[in-house]
Amino acid sequence: MREAKLAKFRIGQVVRHRLFPFRGVVFDVDPEFANTDEWYEAIPAEVRPSKDQPFYHLLAENDDTEYVAYVSEQNLLDDSSGEPVRHPQLTEFFDKTSDGHYAPKGRASH
To answer: Which residues of the chain form beta strands (DSSP E)?
Structure first.
Protein backbone atom coordinates (compact mmCIF):
# COMPACT_ATOMS: atom_id res chain seq x y z
CA MET A 1 0.00 0.00 0.00
CA ARG A 2 1.40 3.39 -1.01
CA GLU A 3 1.46 6.24 1.45
CA ALA A 4 -0.32 9.39 0.26
CA LYS A 5 1.97 12.37 -0.17
CA LEU A 6 1.20 15.52 1.77
CA ALA A 7 0.18 18.49 -0.37
CA LYS A 8 2.75 21.27 -0.52
CA PHE A 9 0.18 23.99 -1.30
CA ARG A 10 -2.99 24.80 0.65
CA ILE A 11 -6.54 25.73 -0.26
CA GLY A 12 -6.66 29.50 -0.89
CA GLN A 13 -2.97 29.79 -1.75
CA VAL A 14 -1.96 31.74 -4.86
CA VAL A 15 0.38 29.73 -7.08
CA ARG A 16 1.89 30.05 -10.53
CA HIS A 17 2.81 27.48 -13.14
CA ARG A 18 6.50 26.63 -13.41
CA LEU A 19 6.50 26.41 -17.23
CA PHE A 20 3.49 28.32 -18.55
CA PRO A 21 2.42 31.93 -17.94
CA PHE A 22 -0.59 31.48 -15.67
CA ARG A 23 -1.40 31.67 -11.98
CA GLY A 24 -4.37 30.95 -9.78
CA VAL A 25 -5.85 30.16 -6.39
CA VAL A 26 -5.99 26.55 -5.17
CA PHE A 27 -9.60 25.50 -4.50
CA ASP A 28 -9.22 21.71 -4.26
CA VAL A 29 -6.46 19.10 -4.01
CA ASP A 30 -6.33 15.48 -5.15
CA PRO A 31 -3.70 13.43 -3.25
CA GLU A 32 -2.75 11.90 -6.61
CA PHE A 33 -3.97 12.16 -10.21
CA ALA A 34 -7.77 11.85 -10.45
CA ASN A 35 -8.61 13.08 -13.95
CA THR A 36 -9.30 11.09 -17.13
CA ASP A 37 -6.73 9.06 -19.03
CA GLU A 38 -7.60 11.09 -22.13
CA TRP A 39 -6.70 14.32 -20.32
CA TYR A 40 -3.42 12.81 -19.12
CA GLU A 41 -2.45 11.37 -22.50
CA ALA A 42 -3.07 14.76 -24.15
CA ILE A 43 -0.07 16.17 -22.26
CA PRO A 44 3.08 15.89 -24.40
CA ALA A 45 5.17 12.96 -23.14
CA GLU A 46 8.27 15.10 -22.57
CA VAL A 47 6.44 17.26 -20.00
CA ARG A 48 3.87 14.74 -18.72
CA PRO A 49 4.00 14.67 -14.88
CA SER A 50 3.95 11.58 -12.73
CA LYS A 51 0.47 10.59 -11.52
CA ASP A 52 1.64 9.75 -7.97
CA GLN A 53 1.78 13.28 -6.62
CA PRO A 54 -0.81 15.82 -5.51
CA PHE A 55 -2.77 17.56 -8.28
CA TYR A 56 -4.39 20.93 -7.71
CA HIS A 57 -7.59 22.49 -9.00
CA LEU A 58 -7.00 26.19 -9.62
CA LEU A 59 -9.16 29.19 -10.36
CA ALA A 60 -6.62 30.24 -12.96
CA GLU A 61 -5.87 33.25 -15.11
CA ASN A 62 -3.44 34.33 -17.77
CA ASP A 63 -3.13 37.65 -19.62
CA ASP A 64 -6.14 36.82 -21.81
CA THR A 65 -8.70 34.85 -19.84
CA GLU A 66 -9.80 33.08 -16.65
CA TYR A 67 -10.45 29.34 -16.41
CA VAL A 68 -10.18 26.27 -14.18
CA ALA A 69 -6.86 24.40 -14.37
CA TYR A 70 -5.70 21.01 -13.09
CA VAL A 71 -1.97 21.03 -12.34
CA SER A 72 0.56 18.65 -10.82
CA GLU A 73 2.47 19.74 -7.75
CA GLN A 74 5.82 19.52 -9.58
CA ASN A 75 4.63 22.24 -11.97
CA LEU A 76 3.56 24.77 -9.35
CA LEU A 77 5.43 27.47 -7.46
CA ASP A 78 4.26 29.83 -4.75
CA ASP A 79 3.18 33.18 -6.19
CA SER A 80 4.40 35.81 -3.76
CA SER A 81 3.65 38.77 -6.05
CA GLY A 82 0.82 39.99 -3.82
CA GLU A 83 -1.23 40.77 -6.95
CA PRO A 84 -4.94 39.95 -6.62
CA VAL A 85 -6.44 37.18 -8.73
CA ARG A 86 -9.28 38.33 -10.99
CA HIS A 87 -11.11 35.02 -11.59
CA PRO A 88 -14.92 35.63 -11.62
CA GLN A 89 -15.67 32.56 -9.44
CA LEU A 90 -13.25 33.58 -6.69
CA THR A 91 -15.96 35.10 -4.47
CA GLU A 92 -17.98 31.85 -4.67
CA PHE A 93 -15.18 29.96 -2.92
CA PHE A 94 -13.21 32.54 -0.93
CA ASP A 95 -13.30 35.68 1.17
CA LYS A 96 -10.37 38.04 0.78
CA THR A 97 -8.68 38.67 4.12
CA SER A 98 -7.37 42.03 5.32
CA ASP A 99 -3.82 40.94 4.47
CA GLY A 100 -4.77 40.12 0.85
CA HIS A 101 -4.94 36.32 1.19
CA TYR A 102 -7.88 34.07 0.30
CA ALA A 103 -9.77 32.25 3.07
CA PRO A 104 -12.22 29.47 2.13
CA LYS A 105 -15.85 30.48 2.71
CA GLY A 106 -17.59 28.73 5.56
CA ARG A 107 -14.46 28.23 7.63
CA ALA A 108 -13.76 29.97 10.86
CA SER A 109 -10.69 32.16 10.68
CA HIS A 110 -8.99 34.58 13.01
So the answer is: 14-17, 23-30, 55-61, 66-72, 76-78, 94-96, 102-104
